[in-house]
């Protein structure tokens, strides 16, 4: 199979036939066996996303300025002859590095795993049959189908192009879409951007359809060659991480200031050597900064992302987790998101009477029953044939189940209706009678879809679409007696019928046809109107409850649909949205409004009907202008701008195009509105839980600083060794901090309004309170220290050290909720083991040979009990009182 020629041939300079021959393929594609063989030979069609090497992530942990200061401190200790100290500080630095590494590495892995869940697929022809396969299984020689919204899954030499336009900006940087043409044969030196007969991996189809033979896969593709383009965009720090880093810096500065004072007093008042004073001050500064916070935040966001994925909400960027928590309006599609999308034509109206269909969903079992006396079977037959002609060439009765998720449900419903009328046995016959010539896919601007067929020696188009639009384009109407010119009375009758069906929540579709005079004749104008189809698409289970739940959380739900106003209103009512005439806005009304006028009414509107994707963008902008945090759903290529503009763009995992998924922050694996609400809940929970470790860690840092500073002020000996501080910050405090991040949701979390835009995790008031807690801890530490001085300095330091370490029990309890009494909170199963672990760590330091390293001495059981109990009890008591008198946000 000439492997070398496969890799080097200038494919764009060969004709389609030459390419197919060279690749040993045909327009019917490869056989499954051959494809399997080639897969073995060429390997999977994937580009290994360039990962950051673990060693690199590890090394990065040590670039932190604070850590460098710590290393410097260790070096100074060494010079002072305090070799033990120097080694201990270095060991702690190492532990810190490992912890930061573990968190970051796990977060990175988690995101990668999540991305895999949404592994791309490709439509391929093998052995003459169209199939959907994982894109990774494509091989050279495969014939691939692409259409609007698809990501091109490998390098293709096009063999067919139908209005095909491709966005190649990912390769060339050129943002205007490129028109493709399979018929061209180009000179070998044609530049990349001009290779009109090729489509390259990683580019996206923005219009039309095409077919191509795979000429290169995986690393041999153009994209594979340009490694730079393959690197996953570096994950930007989330706003939250930025805030935390900023906070760390600020706290760091304050502590540096305090350290300066301590340094000066140590040097001047106590007359110690310059280096000793320096060492003490630097170690204090570094030890008192909450180094662990950013790592804990990243870790919690990653855990959150994984939990969301379990609920079918796939987060594409960590930042989305926190953004979700602040969303207060969801703009959702109707069809398939709020509704099941398993459409069935329930009623058919023609001038020859009305029919009702039996059956369920996309199942073809069922039949048409006349429900009006004048019902005439001749028109029914005609509609059945047209419906099949219009849809059957891509749909197969046998494969209906698997198609249900890939094909337009509207088209499937039309197909199924056709089968019910004509009978499953005659589908092939109808297809023969109406040979397909071309297809104009549905789009939301025309709101129509048409197919052109060879029929009885002439050309005929069949059109379905939004009923008013088709009606407007109709010149004639089909009656049992034959075609006639359409009259104003007909128009009125049909319009009434449309309103009647729509107001009951049916999705209404018109069907019409036209005998074309020739190739150039407009297939969508001058139509003969045939009938109306009323399609049921019931709301999904659980959506009503989810809307209700969102409302309790202070999150508005707004429905944005291309469908008829009355249909939209009826469905909106079914899911519990309040709608009256003044909460509904139609596309044409939007067109007449300025952006300012729109912004003035967005507060009230809960249903937008007959809108186009451009309107969606305007709606997002207007809502944002009014201070809303917007989640907006979408699936098509045209939705991309609105998805990008929204605070959280939400793409449909099943129905959505690759383009929509790529620009979104959240992908719904089940396309379900209720999943958005779940994700918002999760986002809130995670954000709220980040506050708990912060409160816990900061109050400890402030306790340490107050102790050292207070002891200095009181003229006491130096109260804590640097290693003591580092030990607490990095080891004993870590487990409870993580456990606090996993607290179950507090009462009321899902019934109060979302946090306002720009809300911060740490406010001045909170900092004040954490300081108060710190001062309480310091009071105990200093008091107990002073009292035990008579038993020796080492003993007294052990007491102070242990007091601060064991205050974690009280700090943890007080940090579990900002507003609710400890006794109202649900059980957190992570907390007891975490507290026990850190107690254990402290006991190891006190009662094993390690004690000599830390220069501590064993404490008696009574003293230990007092130290463990008193400070914590005081902290909890004070906090319970605080919650009664001072609830801050
Ligand atoms: P929705 O918000 O419900 O997804 P769409 O923009 O998809 O609305 O559809 C708007 C209208 O266009 C529908 O009410 C229907 O009449 C018509 N329509 C939708 N999809 C198709 C299709 N595939 N073929 C023909 N007509 C369609
Ligand atoms: Mg739709």
What descriptors fit this protein?
Calcium-transporting ATPase, transmembrane domain, 35 helices, 889 residues, Cation transport ATPase, ATPase_P-typ_cation-transptr_C, Calcium-transporting ATPase, cytoplasmic transduction domain A, 49% helix, binds magnesium ion, binds adenosine-5'-diphosphate, metal ion binding, alpha+beta, Rossmann fold, translocase, disordered N terminus, eight-stranded mixed β-sheet
Task: Tell me the distance between the termini.
Answer: 69 Å
Tell me how many strands there are.
25
CATH superfamily of the largest domain: Calcium-transporting ATPase, transmembrane domain
- The gross shape turns out to be elongated
Q: How many structural domains does the protein architecture include?
A: 4
Tell me what portion of residues adopts beta-strand conformation: 15-25%
Return the average pLDDT rounded to an integer: 87
- CATH C-level label of the largest domain: Mainly Alpha
Structural class: alpha+beta
- Biggest β-sheet strands, sense, barrel: 10 strands, mixed
Quaternary state reads: single chain
Q: Give the uncertain stretches in residue-range form.
A: 1-8, 228-234
Bound ligands: adenosine-5'-diphosphate, magnesium ion
Which fold does the CATH topology of the largest domain refer to?
Answer: Calcium-transporting ATPase, transmembrane domain
Fraction of residues in helix: 40-55%
Number of helices: 35
CATH architecture of the largest domain: Up-down Bundle
Rg computed from alpha carbons, rounded to a whole number of angstroms: 35 Å
């Amino acid at each position: 199979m000439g492997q070398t020629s496969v890799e080097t041939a200038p494919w764009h300079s060969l004709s389609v036939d030459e390419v197919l021959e060279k690749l040993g393929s045909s327009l019917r594609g490869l056989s499954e066996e051959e494809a399997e063989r080639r897969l073995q030979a060429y390997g999977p069609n994937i580009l290994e996303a360039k990962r950051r090497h673990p060693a690199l992530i590890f090394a990065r942990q040590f670039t932190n300025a604070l850590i460098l200061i710590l290393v410097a401190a260790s070096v100074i200790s060494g010079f002072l002859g305090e070799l033990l100290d120097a080694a201990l500080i270095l060991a702690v630095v190492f532990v810190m590095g490992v912890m930061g590494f573990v968190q970051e590495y796990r977060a990175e892995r988690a995101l990668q795993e999540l991305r895999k869940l949404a592994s791309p697929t490709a439509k391929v022809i093998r052995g003459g049959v169209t199939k959907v396969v994982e894109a990774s299984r494509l091989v050279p020689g495969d014939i691939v189908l692409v259409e609007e919204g698809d990501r091109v899954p490998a390098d293709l030499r096009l063999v067919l192009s139908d209005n095909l336009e491709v966005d190649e900006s990912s390769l060339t940087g050129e943002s205007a879409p490129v028109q493709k043409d399979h018929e061209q044969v180009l000179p070998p030196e044609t530049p990349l951007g001009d290779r009109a007969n090729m489509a390259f991996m990683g580019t996206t189809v923005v219009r039309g359809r095409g077919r191509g033979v795979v000429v290169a896969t995986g690393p041999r593709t153009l994209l594979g060659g340009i490694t730079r383009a393959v690197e996953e965009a570096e994950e930007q720090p989330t706003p939250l991480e930025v805030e935390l880093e900023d906070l760390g810096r600020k706290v760091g500065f304050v502590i540096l200031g305090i350290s300066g004072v301590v340094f000066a007093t140590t040097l001047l008042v106590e007359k110690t050597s310059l280096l000793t004073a320096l060492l003490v001050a630097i170690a204090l500064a570094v030890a008192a900064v909450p180094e662990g916070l950013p790592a804990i935040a990243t870790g919690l966001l990653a855990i959150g992302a994984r939990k969301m994925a379990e609920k079918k909400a796939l987060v594409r960027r960590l930042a989305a987790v926190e953004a979700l928590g602040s969303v207060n309006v969801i703009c959702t599609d109707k069809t398939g998101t709020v509704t099941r999308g398993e459409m069935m034509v329930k009623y058919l109206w023609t001038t020859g009477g009305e029919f009702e269909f039996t059956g369920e969903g996309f199942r073809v079992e069922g039949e048409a029953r006349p429900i009006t006396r004048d019902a005439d079977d001749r028109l029914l037959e005609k509609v059945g044939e047209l419906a099949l002609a219009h849809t059957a060439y891509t749909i197969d009765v046998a494969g209906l189940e698997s198609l249900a998720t890939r094909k337009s449900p509207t088209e499937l419903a039309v197909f199924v209706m056709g089968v019910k009328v004509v009978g499953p046995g005659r589908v092939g016959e109808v297809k023969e009678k109406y040979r397909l010539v071309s297809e104009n896919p549905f789009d939301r601007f025309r709101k129509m879809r048409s197919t052109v067929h060879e029929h009885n020696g002439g050309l005929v188009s069949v059109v379905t679409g939004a009923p008013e639009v088709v009606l407007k384009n109709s010149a004639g109407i089909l009656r049992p007696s034959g075609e006639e010119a359409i009259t104003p009375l007909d128009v009125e009758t049909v319009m009434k019928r449309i309103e009647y069906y729509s107001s009951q929540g049916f999705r209404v579709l018109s069907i019409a046809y036209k005998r074309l005079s020739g190739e150039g004749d407009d297939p969508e104008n001058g139509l003969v109107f045939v009938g109306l189809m009323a399609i049921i698409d019931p709301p999904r289970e659980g959506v009503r409850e989810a809307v209700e739940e969102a409302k309790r959380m202070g999150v508005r739900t707004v429905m944005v649909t291309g469908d008829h106003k009355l249909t939209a209103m009826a469905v909106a009512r079914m899911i519990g949205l309040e709608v009256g005439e003044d909460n509904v806005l139609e596309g044409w009304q939007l067109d007449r409004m300025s952006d300012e006028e729109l912004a003035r009414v967005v507060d009230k509107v809960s249903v937008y009907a007959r809108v186009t994707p451009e309107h969606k963008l305007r709606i997002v902008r207007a809502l944002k202008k009014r201070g809303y945090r917007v989640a907006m759903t979408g699936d098509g290529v045209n939705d991309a701008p609105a998805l990008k503009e929204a605070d959280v763009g939400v793409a449909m995992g099943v129905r959505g195009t690759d383009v929509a998924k790529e620009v979104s922050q959240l992908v719904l694996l089940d396309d379900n509105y209720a999943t958005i609400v779940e994700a918002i809940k999760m986002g809130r929970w995670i954000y709220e839980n980040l506050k708990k470790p912060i409160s816990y860690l900061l109050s400890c840092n402030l306790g340490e600083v107050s102790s050292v500073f207070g002891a200095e002020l009181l003229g006491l000996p130096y109260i804590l060794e640097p290693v003591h501080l580092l030990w607490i910050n990095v080891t004993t405090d870590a487990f409870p901090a993580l456990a606090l991040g996993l607290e179950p949701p507090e009462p009321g979390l899902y019934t109060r309004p979302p946090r306002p835009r720009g809300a911060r995790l740490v406010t001045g008031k909170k900092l004040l309170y954490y300081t108060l807690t710190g001062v309480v801890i310091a009071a105990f530490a200093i008091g107990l220290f002073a009292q035990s001085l008579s038993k020796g300095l080492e003993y007294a330091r052990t007491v102070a050290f242990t007091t601060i370490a064991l205050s974690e029990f009280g700090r943890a309890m007080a940090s579990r909720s900002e507003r609710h009494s400890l006794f109202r909170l649900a059980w957190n199963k992570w907390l007891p083991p975490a507290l026990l672990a850190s107690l254990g760590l402290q006991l190891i330091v006190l009662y094993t040979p390690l004690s000599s390293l830390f220069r501590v001495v064993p404490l008696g059981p009574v003293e230990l009990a007092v130290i463990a109990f008193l400070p914590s009890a005081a902290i909890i008591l004070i906090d319970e009182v605080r919650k009664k008198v001072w609830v801050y946000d």
